[in-house]
Amino acid sequence: MTAKPTIIDCDPGTDDAIALFLALSSPELDVRLVTVAGGNVGLDRTTANARAVVGLTGRAVPIVAGANRSLLADFRAETAVHGDDGIGGVVLPEGPPLAPGIAADAIREELRRAAPGSVTVIGLGPVTNLALAFATEPALLDRVAEIVLMSGAWTEGNITPAAEFNAWNDPEALAMLLNLGARVAIATLDLTAQAFVTPALIEAMARREGGACWRAALAIFRALPTSKRFGHRGFPLHDPCAIAWAIDPGLFGAKSAHCAMDLASGPSRGRTVIDRWERLKLPANVTLMETLDAGRFFAMLEDRVASLP
Questions:
Q1: How far is CA 60 from CA 57, 132, 221, in A?
Q2: Residue 263: which CATH number?
Q3: Are 239 and 271 in contact (CB under 8 A)?
Q4: Best exposed site among 140, 224, 237, 283 by fewest CB in 10 Å?
Q5: What residue numbers bound the domain in which 229 lies?
Q6: Phi and psi, residue 136, nearest 5°
Q7: Whole-model pTM?
Q8: Active-site hit among 82, 232, 238, 258
Q9: Are 262 and 275 in contact, with CB atoms under 8 Å apart?
Q10: What's the pLDDT band for 224 if we cut at 50, 70, 90?
Q11: In which band, very low, low, confident or very high, does the pLDDT at 81 lie, cut at 50, 70 and 90?
């Protein structure tokens, strides 16, 4: 098996932390660069969290800071879910220092070194860094095998009635990515709701022994609040779904669809208008993940993260 050269852009964030653990424990992915934006919390915290998570795995992956605001406005943090520190108050050892530079530049540099059609680019937060990288050097799209995003929803949002948090925080950047003509796969809220974590599941996973990374992951799970949207029965695990697609698309049912952004200033701003049934007669621009084999997903997550140091 040849590991996929991979760039991960994120805003850790509790679920981003779990996603990074999964990516860095998976032999299918050769993670060559982690770039960071603000989003779930401010850039000072998201970069500290990315450094801590990557450092705990023992992997020598460069981490580069990027945008602390969207293309047009400030990011809005979500401390009610992630805590003021972004990882629910879980204390991790300080990680390695940031690599020098700016995220968009680092993304372009990594792509320039890559073979055509070889790199999987994964976006787990507002996609400002990715939009800046590709808008300024669109020719580098020929180095990309696929862009995989956790973003959007085809039903209701989670930050407004219409919009999902990542899409809402920089809808212009997401619109740019969707209009590049790249191969894009997207895990929406409707998909990630199927990766549902209950207190019983956490306690079952806790019976598994593992190293410091696994203990940190369990602590993050226990720190996350249950979701009002789901009757406080548990919470959906968003960002690891995008990583799981990059590892094994066979875990998912998916279809082609057209996705457009609502960029208006009203209450629907940030909505991903996803045409699942070809009603608009527009060409598909995303592969839409629709179903998830949750049993296999959680078994993989547990096996991989528990194998880390």
A1: 9, 25, 25
A2: 3.90.245.10
A3: no
A4: 283
A5: 4-306
A6: -90, -15
A7: 0.97
A8: 238
A9: no
A10: very high
A11: confident
CA dihedral of residues 279, 284, 285, 286 (deg, nearest 10): 90
Angle in degrees, 0-180, between the axes of helices 199-206 and 212-223, rounded to the nearest 10: 160
What is the DSSP annotation of the chain?
Answer: -PPEEEEEEE---HHHHHHHHHHHT-TTEEEEEEEE--SSS-HHHHHHHHHHHHHHHT----EEE--SB-SSSB----HHHH-TTSSTT------PPPPSS-HHHHHHHHHHHSPTT-EEEEE-S--HHHHHHHHH-GGGGGGEEEEEEE---SS--SSSSS--HHHHH-HHHHHHHHTS---EEEE-HHHHTTSEE-HHHHHHHHTS---HHHHHHHHHHHHSPPPGGGTTS-EE--THHHHHHHH-GGGEEEEEEEEEE---SSTTTT-EEEETT-SS-----EEEEEEE-HHHHHHHHHHHHHT--
Chain segment 117-153, per-residue pLDDT in tens: 999 999 999 999 999 999 999 999 999 999 999 999 9
pLDDT > 80? residue 185: yes
Q: Is the pLDDT of residue 294 over 80?
A: yes
Clarify whether 238 is annotated catalytic. yes
How many structural domains is the chain composed of?
1
Residue 79 has pLDDT above 90, yes or no: no
CB 189 within 8 A of CB 155: yes
